[in-house]
Amino acid sequence: MPSPCPVSPEGSVIRLLASRLRRLPPSCGPVRLVGVDGHAGSGKSTFAGQLARELGGAPVLHLDDLATHDELFEWTGRLLTQVVAPLRRGETAHYAPYDWRARDFAPPRPLPPAPVVLVEGVGAGRRALRPHLAHLLWMDLLAEESWTRGRTRDGEEQREFWDGWVRAERRHFAEDPSRPFADLLVRQSTDGYEVLPGPVTTVGPDRQITQGDGPPAMW
What we know:
- It contains 5 helices and 10 strands.
- By secondary structure, the protein is an alpha/beta fold.
- The strands form 3 sheets. Strands 2-7-1-8-9-10 form a 6-stranded mixed β-sheet, covered by helices on one side. The chain has a two-stranded antiparallel ribbon with strand order 3-6. A two-stranded antiparallel ribbon has the order 4-5.
- The protein starts with 9 loop residues before the first helix and ends in a 22-residue tail after the last strand.
């Protein structure tokens, strides 16, 4: 048997993952709600966008649209009432995205009860949301490295915001961690992505999706 590749090509991994997610039982009414969590700057938005395209244009809820300057993590109520409750009824959800420049909420935006809906952002695997998730993915990049990437991306003008954000994120994950409950860990390298069983599902040594040998048996 040939040795598995350490990292699968990006498209191969995402295609396999999309196939897995489609096969999951619905978790929120008719919807397979999938969380993509990780530290700020870990690549959640980029990965979720690619996964959504592989899923045929699956809707993506960005949690940055629910957070505000005054409530970086205190948006659980809005998420449950504006998004989760309607989806559980099989209805189109309508949530008011926050405009970070105007510091006010914009007109409501629809979120249809598609077969798979991605919830992307820091805190997507929080305690209050996990019962409604079909799967939780964690972008497995260390906090300090993630924050450095985010600061570099946003530039000096966002330095003060980032200082406050890091403190808030530390508090959030200390009180309500997500990684221990992740079904899968997603790691990025210069060669693409690799997906490993998360803490919830890992039994024995890590196993990864690789080109040529298909998904692991546990998939």
